[in-house]
Structure formats: structure tokens, C-alpha cells
Design brief:
Number of domains: 1
Order of helices and strands: EEHEHEHEHEHEHEHEHHHE
Radius of gyration: 17 Å
Strand order of the largest sheet: 2-3-4-5-6-7-8-9
Low-confidence stretches: none
CATH topology: TIM Barrel
Helix content: 40-55%
CATH class: Alpha Beta
Structural class: alpha/beta
Length: 275
Amino acid sequence: MYLKLLDLHTHIDKYPETEIKQILDRANRVGVAGAILAGTTVKSSNKCVALANADDRLFASVGIHPMEIPITDMESHIQAITELVLTSNVVAISEIGLDKMLGAPDFKKQEDIFRAHIQLAKTTNLPIIYHSRESYPYILDVLEDEEAYKVGGAAHYFQGDVSTAFRCIDSGFFISIAKPVLRIPQLQEVVSKIPLENILIETDSFPQPFKKNRKTWTEPRHLVDIVEKIATIKGITTTEVSIQMHCNLMNLFKDKYGAMDKILNSHPVNPVEFD
């Protein structure tokens, strides 16, 4: 059976535009039809929208990353993101969230701008794809307090434990699994324990010059590796995994997904032949 895949969360907007096309072409050759770009600032969100407008294998999500929040004038930045959502074909609010990494911006300011993004998502009926580093379980308290379940979304690049995963699901969010599942036993346990109906997949692709061999840089084409690993953990076929990913994307994006899927299926992609 043939089925095309969609990368839920990437930063390939950080590449030169000529290289983005090559990255997408490589993805298409293994059955990955497209990718969602995640904005991290007002400037990068605008670029994500522009790239999505230029290549319909790409879709844009917009937002301000907790490590990138402005020191002053947060209101104008949120207003800029709001205007971008209202005037563009944006499919999600991302990359937003909370981060307690050493040197991170003031946590109260992070929370304020995170809550503002959640309110924007609810106003525009867009899902939230959120970032959490060292901020569980508090980030779920915020999401629940803001009734974010009304739009739902996904826990981006999830690396928590099983109990945290189930609480995310109970809060209305999918668990987005990336390449760490190939090597981290805790994530493999999460995948084994939670229902396939609550899983999405992503690569979080971005330029990785710290890797000397360019061929080893993570790209959307590596979604296939993640599908294969999930199938192995679950003891099912890759066909079953890929079909459920398609269904889960439909549940996440709701009315928007019909148009997204139609665009993706209009491209001459070489779908992966699954077992």
C-alpha cells in the first residue's frame, strides 16, 4: 500500500531557498510529501509564510519561541503574529511554549506570551504545537487553565515519560515523536504504552553544521525511519502506522486538512511502498 507522509514540525526555513527545494525533493523520493515550517520570531514566522506561499509542499505555523521572546514591547509582537494569522494560510500556532533551560528569558514573561498565543489559537481555531523544556508539569497546568483543549494540538519533540504523555493526551494533545525514539528507551516505552491514535511524527529538521557529514543532517525524509521504529515497537506494519498518522493529522487540522491533503496529493511524489 502507498501513503504519503507529512512532517509536523521543521525549521528548514533556516536553509537557503535553493537548498530547501533539494530537501523537499529528497523527501518526496521516499514518500514524504511535505512539511510544516515552525516560526520562532515575528521575522521567521513571516519567512515561513512566504516560503509556504512559494512552494505548496510547505505549510506555515507561526509564533514566538520562549527562548526568543522580546525584552520589551511584547504586545506589538503578538499583534504582528495575530495579523499574520489573519492574513495568511497558516495551519497552526507554533513554536510556542515554556523553557527553563539555563539562561532562558524571565519565566513570567514566557508564560505571559505563551498564554497570549493560546488565546490567539482559540480565537482563530488553530491547533497549538508547543515546546516544553524542563517545564512539565507546569506547562500542562497553563494549557488546562487556558482551556487549550478546545483547539488541541501536539507536544512537539516529546521526551517525557509515560505518565506525562498520558496527561498531555488527557489535556487534548497528541504526542509528537521524533528521531530520539530511535535510540532512547524511555521514548520507546512511551510509544509502546500510549495508543497509536494519539501519536504524530516530526523531524524538527534544521541545519546541523556540528555534524561533519552533511548526509547525516536530519531532514523530513527521515520520517520514514520514525514510522518504521514505531511499527517495530507496536508490533504492527508500517502501513498501519502511516494510515493512522494520516487519520491523526485529519483529527488535528480538521477542516484545514482536506485542502492540505489535496495539495500534497497533487505532487508527483514517489510514495513509500509499505508492507
